[in-house]
Amino acid sequence: MRLVIVPLLSSAFLLAACHREPPPMPSKPFTAAGVGLRLEPPAAPDCKPDTTYRAVLHWSWKSDLPKTDVRIGSPTGPLFARSNDEVAQQETGNWVKPGTWFILLDRGGDQVLGAIQAGPQPCP
Asked: What CATH number is given for 2-117 in this structure?
């Protein structure tokens, strides 16, 4: 019976060791050193919170292995774009609205390289 338990315990340990906690959600927009991240346009053309619009996300990362993912809403949110280049861009559909987060991750997913949030225009 001991021979059966040891493999089961070993398997449980290996599965636990493979589980990584996702990187934390940034509390404000930022970029790590060597990272560029911008949204064009950065906000909807009006001050209405329910306005949706198209935008282009631009990013860059100086690295020997510049593999990046962009996720929407959080570091574990839906995948929006993926690149193997130091400089990349991706157009959105007509779904960006004030408050939408774009999270730039290294491909391994364990480091947030930058975060930007679509914002409202300054209102009169």
From this structure: 2.60.40
